[in-house]
Specification:
This protein is mostly helical. It folds into two domains: about 15-70, Arc Repressor Mutant, subunit A (Orthogonal Bundle); about 85-195, Tetracycline Repressor, domain 2 (Orthogonal Bundle), CATH 1.10.357. The protein contains eleven helices and no strands. α1 (about 15-30) packs across α2 (about 40-45), α4 (about 60-70) packs parallel to α7 and α9 (about 160-170) runs antiparallel to α10 (about 180-195). The protein starts with 13 loop residues before the first helix and ends with a helix. It holds the Pfam family TetR_N.
């Protein structure tokens, strides 16, 4: 009677795992999510397709994991003592919107988010979720300091900065720079956060 021995296939981990993630980001930026294949990533990473599938069961899982490995933005926002300083520290440097590798990879998955449910779910939970948490903490801290008006709807304001930057980058072709991020913060975000609440006029209430 033969004895079935356990599989001895090595796990993909450590530096080799990150090399595959890096190759995925490169292929993603070059061809986009729809045209990315496990074969293309395996070739770029000089690995077998079987090696990829031992670690990532689907293309969506591989792409989301690879995007998360870019480590863009701080996991815990720096407390600079002001809303402006916190926003600049979190989003104005190389770990923020001016990270060109991140922006290229991010834009390459945008259209697929409406058609690939697995990608969309993983992307929103693992990639966008932590960034929203950082932004939420920054604004909550500013509210506690008294920097922003107490009636401000943070659910509306928090996405404004990334929304403006991404619109300029993707729609207008204006790549993010530290200066652009600072101008959006100074001319749009801070005035919106600190301006007195508008009082409805008589015509607006009738």
């Amino acid at each position: 009677m033969s004895i079935r021995r356990p599989s001895c296939r090595p796990r993909v981990e450590g530096d080799r795992e990150q090399e595959i993630r890096d190759a995925t980001v490169e292929v993603l930026a070059e061809v986009g999510y729809d045209r990315l294949t496990m074969d293309a990533v395996a070739k770029a990473a000089q690995a077998s397709k079987a090696t990829l599938y031992r670690r990532w069961s689907t293309k969506a899982a591989l792409v989301v994991d690879s995007l998360c490995s870019l480590k863009a933005g701080p996991e815990t926002p720096v407390d600079t003592g002001s809303l402006r300083g916190d926003l600049l520290a979190a989003f104005g440097g190389e770990k923020g919107f001016v990270n060109h590798s991140l922006m290229a990879a991010f834009t390459s998955v945008l259209t697929a988010l409406t058609t690939d449910e697995e990608l969309a779910t993983g992307f929103r939970e693992r990639f966008i979720g932590p960034k929203l948490a950082v932004s939420r903490e920054i604004y909550a801290r500013a509210k506690t300091r008294g920097e922003i008006r107490p009636d401000l709807d943070l659910d509306l304001l928090e996405p404004a900065l990334p929304g403006i930057i991404l619109h300029r980058a993707i729609v207008l072709g204006d790549p993010p720079t530290p200066d652009l991020v600072a101008r959006v913060i100074d001319q749009i975000i801070l005035p919106a956060a600190t301006a007195p609440a508008a009082v409805p006029t008589a015509s607006a209430t009738t």
